[in-house]
Amino acid sequence: MRGDGGDVYWRRRMSVLVAVLVVVAVVAWACSSGADGPERRSSAQSSPSPSVSPAVDPLLAGLRTPAATRTASPSPSASASQKAAKSPTPTPSPTRPRRPGAPCVDDDLVLSLQGEERVYRGSARPHYLVTLVNAGPVMCVADVGPRALEVRITSGSDQIWSTADCVSGPGEELKQLKRGVPYVRAVDWDRHRSSANCRATPAAALPGTYVVTARLGGLRSAKGVFHLR
């Protein structure tokens, strides 16, 4: 009786131990299969089959076709440039050649003025050289008389002296100017004022600063500044 009871007791203990081991084995198998399952599925999903082509949306396919076959319209700037290229360039009318001996024009003349000193003391008279050069293509004629080719001396806004004042006779002097050959005229100022009414006893100019220029039509020489002492 006691021996049978001990065997039964150990058999029950072994059965419980076996049952616990079976449960542990089942749980371990379930965990390992659950961990491998999603990875296998994800790897299967991540690698698409090479033989299956992606489906094309019919709406997108219909929109792509006209865009690929549409011809781009030229921009307005391109059209304008094409029209400008096609339109003939107007031919400039030939300029009439200059006739030798015709009156000189301002564009063909170069006027300059040169003085000897900057300061004149005592009774020393200011002395200047007026130079006129024809830079045109042919010989031309210019009036170099004292009225047309004027030398003027001023002090501020006050005109002191001019070669155009008190000119006797017609005062016209026509000169043929060859291309590149300068016309030179010397001008001396007696240090007295001048006026258009030709007064008999002109007043002497006072010591001070003066400006001298040469003029011919629309031409002006560079200004010369000098001082009377």
pLDDT < 50 runs, ≥5 residues: 35-54, 56-72
| Rg result | 57 Å
Give the CA-based shape.
rod-shaped
Binned strand content: 25-35%
Main beta-sheet annotation:
6 strands, mixed
H/E element order? HHHEEEEEEEEEEEE
The CATH architecture of one domain can be named as Sandwich
CATH superfamily of one domain: Immunoglobulins
Distance between the termini: 165 Å
The helicity comes to: 25-40%
Instruction: Tell me how many strands there are.
Output: 12
- Give the class-level CATH name of one domain: Mainly Beta
Determine the structural class based on helices, strands and strand pairing.
Answer: alpha+beta
CATH-assigned fold name of one domain: Immunoglobulin-like
Summed over residues and divided by their number, the pLDDT gives a mean of 76
- If helices are DSSP runs of H or I spanning 4 or more residues, what is the number of helices? 3
Describe the structure.
With 229 residues, this protein is of the alpha+beta class. It has a domain at 102-228: Sandwich (Immunoglobulin-like), CATH 2.60.40.10. The chain is built from 3 helices and 12 strands; from the N terminus they run αααββββββββββββ. It has helices at 2-46, 58-69, 76-86; strands spanning 102-103, 109-115, 119-120, 127-134, 140-143, 149-155, 158-162, 174-177, 183-188, 208-216, 219-220, 224-228. Strands 3, 6, 7, 10, 11 and 12 form a 6-stranded mixed beta sheet that branches. A 3-stranded mixed beta sheet has the order 1-5-8, with no helix packed on it. Strands 2-4-9 form a 3-stranded antiparallel beta sheet, with no helix packed on it. Mean pLDDT is 76; it is low at 35-54 and 56-72.
